[in-house]
Design goal:
Elements lengths: L1 H8 L3 E5 L2 E4 L1 H20 L3 E2 L5 E3 H6 L9 E4 L5 E4 L4 H11 L8 E10 L14 E11 L2 H21 L5 E4 L10 E7 L5 E6 L5 E3 L21 E4 L6 H8 L7 E8 L2 E8 L6 H8 L5 E2 L2 H8 L15 E5 L8 E4 L5 E6 L9 E3 L17 E16 L1 H5 L3 E3 L5 E3 L1 E8 H11 L1 E2 L2 E2 L10 E5 L5 H16 L4 E4 L5 H11 L3 E5 L7 E6 L6 E4 H29 L4
Parallel strand pairs: 3-7, 15-17, 17-20, 27-28, 27-29
Antiparallel strand pairs: 1-2, 4-6, 5-6, 7-8, 8-24, 9-10, 10-21, 11-12, 11-21, 13-19, 14-15, 14-16, 18-19, 21-24, 22-23, 25-26, 29-30, 30-31
Length: about 575
Amino acid sequence: MISHKLLLRAGFIRRVGAGIYDYLPLGYKVLKKIEKIAREEMDAQGGQELLMPAIVPAELYQETGRWGLDVLFRLKDRNDRDYSIGFTHEEVVTDIVRRDVRSYRELPLNLYQIQTKGRDEPRPRGGVVRGREFIMLDSYTFDRNWEDLDRAYDKMYVAFSRTFARCGLDTLVVEADSGAIGGKDSQEYMVIADSGEDMILVCGSCGYAANSEKCEIGERPIKKSEEELQSLELVDTPGARTIEQVTSFLKKSPKKLVKTLIYKAGDEVVAALVRGDREINEPKLMRALGVKNIEMADADTIEKLTGAEVGFAGPVGLNGARIIADREVEAMMNFVVGANKTDAHYINANIGRDLEISEYADLRVASKGDACPKCNRDLGVERGMEVGHIFKLGDIYSEGMDAKFLDDDGREKPFLMGCYGMGVSRMLAAIPEVNSDKDGMIWPVSVAPFEVVVILLNSDDDAQCSAAIRLYEELQQAGVDVLLDERDERPGVKFKDADLIGCPIQVVAGRLAGEGKVEVRTRTEKDKQEVDIDNATSRVLELRSGLYSILSDRAAMVSSIGKVD
């Protein structure tokens, strides 16, 4: 990723291990500024900061059934007790509240922290974008009813949106799947970037946007194929288990295949059918089945069900499994399916004649050209990098951990919770990923390692030294975060480093110093302004104020929008 290369080149981060990084002084300065903005916006919405432990006893995760998650870093103490490095803190914060909050009079409550987390990511990537150790802001709200939770959620929407805007990030809020966190409503803040690992479906007509894991597909009239019905035929396909192998062997398009995927949903075995060029969306399948968990069936289960090895399952003559198909399959004719016989497939299978399907649902991952669920127009595709995720958890954790309060009617009720996560260290990468050029990073003034860099070109020149030191001291006294580059390096090196580091405003004390002038420019503008030294500080302050105003205007626009539609 561009940001990874630039952060390494500029000395902001250094790799320690896979997904584990040092934050060097420049990078740490940026992180602290991001944290400061986030704290201001959280506090403005009634948040109270605390700090929870990084090491969490297994008992807390066991209460909610999350001890078995594969993302946990587990460890034991000298007494053989189990612990985990906290990957998110729903259980810990719920434990705090269930012990200390008794009455509805103590609600609403918003607790947040900024802390280092650990997750055993299988594929760390992009430097600090997806790391095994990372810094996150996680906030948790506790309310007495859904109306209050909705209000808390809206406040956090504003706090997060304003934080990103003040950090110079344009974000798109999209519908999302709750994943391992659980809960009801869930939305992600995405930064649109070609290098993003998330696929986002966006409707250019009505503005609907959703992560591909969540995106629903609108229903359009089913257009049955007009091709002539062909006879069902069993064909040998030796060793052809995958879609690629089958299509290559039979010389057919993946669009003419139907994949049969066998799952376990509790005690029930399910056969889910999707077109050969589509991917199954497991969260959608769970919702269609009305279950909270599913898992791919093991080889023994598949062989017992189908009588064949893995890779040859199909719906023709399949007994002992609940069959559910993606809506797209209903319109297909003369398609290829597994024959429930090792090294064999059926061609020209047809619904109604060769197999029966009683259940259809939206089961596939949405893709470009699918129907928008709001207006039925074609969906477009963008790539995005997630920087924030907000959830309405409801009573999932409070019920599971017996966290209750006494309401005004004298009855005990579970807290209704919200959960809100912001990737602080990920923002260190997201900002330059979309704010850079061939020369380096372009930091917004609010989070730049330094707001201004004063470049002294020749330290042997008394006029240049005097001008540089004067401006440096004046800017410091004016409250500007300023860097003085007085190194014994060539001017070209200093200019390249200033551009690489990305300070928003550059002041050059060079040959014009003898005439009582310096050069001033912003990082995004190559044209330099010649300014009298006596007016240079006021000119820099004016430029700095203008840059902050742009960010403030963005944040004000977010505040006026308010609630998410």
